[in-house]
Write a structure and sequence with these properties.
InterPro entries: AraC-bd, Homeodomain-like_sf, HTH-like, HTH_AraC, RmlC-like_jellyroll, Tscrpt_reg_AraC-type_HTH. The chain is of the alpha+beta class. The chain has helices spanning 97-100, 119-138, 143-162, 169-192, 199-205, 210-221, 225-243, 248-254, 260-271, 275-280; strands at 17-24, 30-34, 39-53, 56-61, 65-68, 74-77, 80-87, 111-112. The chain folds into 2 domains: 17-167, Sandwich (Jelly Rolls), CATH 2.60.120.280; 170-280, Homeodomain-like (Arc Repressor Mutant, subunit A). It has 10 helices and 8 strands. Strands 1, 2, 3, 4, 5, 6, 7 and 8 form an 8-stranded antiparallel β-sheet that branches.
Amino acid sequence: MEPFKEIAQLGNKMLPVKIFITELNQTCTYVPPHWHDFIEILYLLEGEAKIQINNSYYDIKSGEIILLNSLDVHAVYGFSKYLVLQFDTSIATDLPIEFNKLFPFNDDDKIIKQNKNYIDYIETIRYYMEDIINKYNQKPPGYEIDIRGSIYKILASIIAYSQTTSKNELSYKKHKENLKRLEKLLRYIDEHYNENITINDAASMLNFAPNYFCRFFKNTMGKTFLEYLNFYRCSKAEILINTTNKPITEIALMVGFSSVAYFNRVYKKYKGHNPSYERKKDNIVQIKDNI
């Protein structure tokens, strides 16, 4: 599996759709950066969250909506509960041309904030997303047709909200090309994150000058190379802390940190608490270390 690429089965050919609720709490505090080949719409039901979309970050509160294109690198942080609707763009193939022109979503339209001018659009989208999840779970006769109809009404509301049918096609293609160029490096990080990987090493792998590589990586991934590498290592460390009895010092070395003090600082920066607190949480899963 390619690093950070989500692979999901979206229903079937007749209804390429998936809908579910995600909750971030003390057990699962974030959804790490990833992308996928389908459209995703998030509706924040409870709490507040920080959303990363490519190289931008947004503070989102309950009642607001996020629109994500395929290949958008995105992540969610903060205790929150949100409704997720995923679907393939093929669902709009037979619709009038203005629907197909909607994809990819314009960058300026990806966050639908709570605003009295937008409340009708938000309420319409929320209503039909809740209608979809009810029919998706209950599967009454003809539910596939009903769900398609609800998705079309959601898309119509998004078109009305954006007041445009133009798409930022050039930017979208450029981002797709940039991700493709980073694919080799991201796969290498996934396999060698516990080794010493310098900026020069990473730049050389892509035949980039180091300074250009740093700008290219941040513009594409929304983080500097070091931030990305440290975040990835901390994510691996979190798994080891929660699923083994290995000492924190050993885990720090296992995931690529040469200094335990530095590991503690970086871990707290990304997770909001130090590694020892992670292990003390009441909901931790203790698994006997067989190694």
